[in-house]
Amino acid sequence: MDKSLFRYIWKHSKRDQLIVCAVVLASQPFYFMSLDLPRQIVNEAIQGEAFRDGNTTAPFLKLGIDLPSWLGGGSFQIFEGFQLSRVGLLFGLSTLFLFFVIINGGFKYWINVAKGILGERMLRRMRFDLFTMVLRFTPEALRTVKSSETATIIKDEVEPIGGFIGDAFITPVFLTMQAATALFFIMVQNVWLGLLALGVVGIQIIIIPRLRRELLRLGRERQLASRELAGRIGEVLDGIEVVHVHHAYNWERAEIGNRLYTLFDIRVKIYNRKFVVKFLNNFLSQLTPFFFYAIGGYFALRGTLDIGQLVAVISAYRELPPPLKELIDWDQQRLDVQVKYDQVTQHFADERLAPLIEAREEEAQDEPLVGALAGEDLRVSDPHGGMILDSASFALDLPARVALIAAGSPAASVMARIVARRTPGFGGEIRIGERDLMRLPPGVVGRRIAYAGIDPILFPGTIRDNLIYGLRFKPLGKTEEGRREAERRVAEALRTGNPVESISDQWIDYERVGAKDADDLDRLLVHLLNRIGMGNEIYLFGLAGRIDPDKDPDLAERVVDARRGLYDTFRSSGMADLVEPFDADRYNDQATIAENLLFGVPTTEEFMGRRLAENSDFRSALDKAGVTDDLVHMGLQIAKTMTEIFQGLPPGHSLFEQFSFVGAEELPEFEAILRRHPRPSEDMDRDDRVRLLSLPLAYVEARHRLGLLDDRLKTELVQARRFVRETLEKSEFAGVDFYDPERITAAAPLRDNLLFGRVSYRVANARVRVAEAISTVVREMGLLEDIQRIGLDQQVGTAGRLLTPQERASVNLVRCLVKRPDILVIDGALAPFDEARAQQMTELLLDLLEEQSLFMVVPNERQAKGFDVLMRFKDGQVTTETTTGGREPEAMEPGPEAAQPIEGEVA
After folding, report:
1. DSSP state of 500
2. For residues 372 and 395, is the Cβ–Cβ distance under 8 A?
3. Confidence tier at 903 by pLDDT (50, 70, 90)
4. HSE-up of 816 (CA within 13 Å, CB side)?
5. Count of CB atoms within 10 A of residue 364's CB?
6. pTM for this structure?
7. Separation of alpha carbons 463 and 456, rounded Å
């Protein structure tokens, strides 16, 4: 980015700036005329100067130019106008004044909108330029730059810069022209009053900006303090676990409090200085009207200035302070924004950025990374000055499977990062054939080298999104979208320097990864996850996933068939008592009362949990069915029982989880309700009834066993089910996906759609046995791969926190494998696994990468079996040894075909 903000703005927006400035200049004659009309109304229409010689009519819209005496006098007539009476002239001039007010307002409207659009376009360009530079940060820069500060700069700190961009050239032109027009008009009326106004304006322009320089310094301090505050808060959030472990709450509160006090102190100083300057500016602005009234009145008394001219001068001066004030504010904003821009450019300094590589040069060097790999005179030092690599050299031929034997030394990891291009800051040279590895374009390295480190980085999104992340190099084809919207998007992208490519385009080269289309790529991903040992986990994720029957009707129909097959298996195997199916005519003892009443899955939050009792449609349906009083009475009994059971128990006790009706923090509230209403009564207020009604909705007789449900109430609840459905279907938005044995419930997990019921609480080990039965039916009906593909939609959460360390590591490895790199570097990526599993995965990687190169850091020679080359490190030197080859890979951990589902995974 240019070091000068104005050069950056002019370079990218000069065409738009000139167009708006041209409109500003075109608006000034209309502005001048609007200033002269009050004089004409007072002098010619009201005082009757136009009818002085006994004329009954006067010209209207007479166009001419009358020069003042100090400009030589004289006049030029353009149009004689229309003859009007005195009243007609008054209304004609007044209407003309209103017309010019509308015209000037229209000009201002267009100019402000144009400035706003121009500013937004430039803000979009600037943010994109900064983000592009973030992608070019070198590894050394990334170790010193705080991500939270960089994000704050791009999101917040450039916001005022973007707001200023539209005003950078247009506002000073517009305001200067307005002020100059008003001053010129005053001088035309009376040169002495004009010079007086010019003198006061000159004082304002000279003194006020000088007084505001201290505000700039304070503003710079405030911006830096705010950025440091954001960075510190980001650090605390990143390390919140350490804060919890060491109970450092008081220190962190005090530290942030100190930073907030610093910000407060700076802002107080800014306010004091700011309003002193504002007071002086307002005083100077009001000083000129004093002179106008005094001196202008004196001239009027002497007859050298008529009343209409004095009124016009005062009216014109009213138009002068606003543009002057805004012009001074613009100058202040200019200096403030320039400071911000300077700080932004310093954060994105050139020394922090990797050099740009042209696309043609990148394409020319995109060749397979095979041949002789040689490192010469490699030198790397540690933070204490010791040498990790000291003039080390090696040579080997690629493709090869190389074991970098750590033996307690960091040299192996350093070498792995050098080969993976993750450590550019080293001495010496490393080449592949005639090509310098460190000079290869980043695009070539990204496609042909993969690196899996000890801390896998996953982005929020699905497992699939993370697996195919390394395949999105460039768009290969366009998807169909609205032509007009596409043209507008591309046009705006070209005007703002943004990419014209759309994220909806085809970004994946399926042929490169050995797939035909997106579905085939999913099958490849599932295959690799099975090979890597994550098949069972992805299968369980799939069971927890959901199906959209509109998008995949064939799969939905097959799931319904599998549901029938599952119940056939239960009946034939004597397992019918394991699951109680949903039946529209029967009460399900294994489900909650809410589930029995809704007989479906809520799709909005207002029908979930305690909020269901607050829903007016739901309560009205219960009232129609006549079960509200019974449920409130049951809620009162549950509240009594819970307060007795939980009395004296600390929060977090296991009983709170077992009886999930009332939380520890809610006990006092229900105790208060019991004191007000120890037994059911008709005078119970609405809020208490709703709170009590919410308790039995989570009640499951088979689980909680409080004996609160008898056959009569069950029958009434089944009958109430019909009223609930009818009421919700008539409402504007039902919010519930109702159960149907002949179709998929889209809002329910796939597991629930297969079961179409609830696992019995009364049968021991029922969940494990049901999970085994589901696995059997899934395999028999060929649904395994489809379910695993649904598992690819599992969200990984922020930084992959919804996955276990082993799952994160597996996803990271498959992400590297699926792009088929020429060189795969493994540096601690298997650390989350035990030794036996890590050895199995190592042998699998050796098997999968027979035609590619594999560099893996291993702790000792015992785990280096099967590699072609052993690379050892000692005293800063490197030695290589070629072995006789690998051995046949052993079987991996069983995939989902053989894996037994984990207990508790089926609800």
Report:
1. -
2. yes
3. very low
4. 29
5. 11
6. 0.72
7. 13
